[in-house]
Automatic annotation (TrEMBL):
Residue stretches spanning the membrane: none
Protein name per Swiss-Prot or TrEMBL: Methyltransferase domain-containing protein
SUPFAM superfamilies recorded: S-adenosyl-L-methionine-dependent methyltransferases
Cited PANTHER family: CGI-41 METHYLTRANSFERASE, METHYLTRANSFERASE DOMAIN-CONTAINING PROTEIN
């Protein structure tokens, strides 16, 4: 995938089904009567489906086969969404440095020594291999970890690249301090491929350079000195992995390569009418003109970008999905309750940010409401609590039927999320190719450079798993 024809189909598809990615907050399910806006054939099917519907739905949500007897129009949309979204399998790619998973085992001992979770160790180990290859090929003398956080990647890079200067940049000073502290005490074992070694010792000879700074396309070039750099980022939020880092790569002579995995797409700037150069989507001329010419009413909004990280395909346990779906059901019902229960005390409709709640809140609707109201500061006295319990008793819905409907809507939306993420990533690829002068249907071009988009992490371990790698053609 990646040609303009594929992009055309992808944008058309998202444009056609825009309501699913952009048209509603699921917690307004009851209040806005969202079910009435779903295709009547699908509604009828969900309401009439047999008792094993939820089981099938969970299977489909995790990438399983769509049952033959489901409506043709529904199967078609699901299949097209799956076809248009970028694939998620990790394929060996020696040139970039992507090895098969079985080459490395992240056991408890490796995690303990590296002081990282299994997920983090998996990510930094695989990413650092790619970075090392790029730094070697580009003869880079410095690597800059942008949005370095607690320094998990930074410290492994310092260990693997003893002759290179390693920078750790983050806008959060507490994280920079934590990272510094970690760097002086960590004992890092990158399992069998590298001997266990004390980073603190190494730090005395070649210390990591820590910088607290909020980066944007203007500040990053200012921080860079005259060296040969590789810019890297692990789960760099929003525009950091897009506009900021990609533009810096293209505009700064000294930046020879970039290796970045993005996340938090909802933080991409899509709303700056006064200054289009600050927009994080679309970045490429190709995608911009495709939208302008063929889909002028299409755009990615904050809400549609929040769906980009929505997927159940990486869940390996149906009960975890079921509990997430139950959370959506409770949240929607809670919104309904809030509007009738002393509305004077509540915020305007839809403005309550409930977020994560303690595990006990997921047991039943009553526990959910008590936990949510406590978190929102709405249960300030015994009297208020009593009135809340009364109000909960008055909420009457056909629980099983509503749960099915909400589960269906949530799973449907999860089919579009990976398509949105794919569009964002393909746009970034196009932008890099345009900037380097590489033909859009090629990965590399003699004398210009190369651009890759590849799956790097195991999807079940880390669903934001796609790495963007670009290199300039200067290898001297
Ligand atoms: C999701 S965390 C990832 C941290 C680290 N790379 C990791 O994988 O553990 C993103 C980090 O980027 C930092 N960050 C976000 N926007 C930034 C910006 N514009 N400039 C510098 N740091 C930024 C945040 O403070 C946060 O530490």
């Amino acid at each position: 995938m990646g040609t303009s024809t594929d992009l055309h189909t992808l944008v058309s598809f998202l444009s056609q089904h825009r309501w699913w990615i952009d048209g509603f907050h699921l917690f307004d399910f009851f209040c806005d009567n969202l079910w009435e806006q779903v295709d009547p054939e699908w509604r009828e099917f969900v309401d009439a489906a047999s008792g094993d519907f939820m089981e099938h739905l969970l299977h489909v949500a995790t990438g399983g086969q769509i049952p033959e007897m489901w409506p043709e129009s529904l199967k078609a949309v699901m299949c097209i969404a799956r076809t248009l979204a970028l694939g998620r399998r990790v394929e060996r790619d020696e040139e970039i440095g992507i090895l098969p998973e079985e080459d490395v085992v992240y056991d408890d001992e490796a995690c303990r020594l590296a002081a990282m979770s299994r997920k983090k160790l998996h990510e930094v180990d695989r990413l650092s291999r790619v970075i090392f290859r790029v730094a070697e090929r580009q003869n880079a003398d410095s690597i800059i970890d942008v949005g370095a956080g607690h320094g998990y990647l930074t410290h492994l890079l310092a260990h693997q690249n003893p002759s290179r200067r390693i920078y750790a940049i983050d806008c959060d000073d507490a994280r920079t301090c934590g990272s510094k502290d970690r760097g002086t005490r960590i004992v890092l074992s990158n399992h069998h491929r590298h001997p266990t070694r004390i980073i603190a010792e190494h730090q005395k000879e070649n210390p990591v350079i820590y910088v607290t700074a909020r980066l944007d396309p203007q500040t990053l070039p200012e921080i860079l000195e005259a060296h040969r750099y590789v810019l890297v980022g692990l789960h760099s939020c929003g525009d950091l992995s897009g506009l900021t880092m990609l533009r810096t790569f293209l505009e700064c002579e000294g930046v020879k390569g970039i290796v970045v995995v993005g996340c938090c797409y909802h933080r991409i700037c899509v709303d700056r009418e006064d200054d289009e150069s600050q927009l994080g989507f679309p970045l490429s001329n190709n995608v911009r003109s495709l939208i302008q010419v063929h889909h002028p009413s299409f755009s990615l909004t904050y809400r549609s970008l929040t769906t980009a990280c929505l997927t159940f395909a990486s869940f390996d346990n149906p009960s975890t999905i079921l509990s997430a779906l139950r959370g959506h059901y409770h949240r929607s019902l809670f919104e309904l309750l809030l509007r009738s229960w002393e509305p004077a005390h509540t915020l305007p409709p839809g403005q309550h940010r409930v977020g994560g709640l303690p595990k006990a809140a997921s047991t039943d609707f009553r526990s959910y409401c008590v936990a949510a109201c406590t978190k929102l500061g709405l249960c300030t006295s015994d009297e208020r609590r009593g009135s809340l319990i009364d109000a909960i008793g008055k909420v009457e819905v056909d629980r099983e039927k509503m749960m099915r409907r909400i589960a269906f809507m949530c799973v449907m939306r999860s089919f579009f999320g990976p398509c949105v993420e794919s569009l964002v990533l393909l746009d970034r690829m196009m932008y890099l190719k345009e900037g380097l002068g590489i033909p859009l249907d090629q990965d590399k071009h003699e004398g210009k450079g190369r651009v890759w988009l590849n799956n790097l992490f195991d999807y079940a371990e880390s669903p934001r798993n796609m790495v963007v790698v670009a290199e300039k053609a200067t290898c001297v």
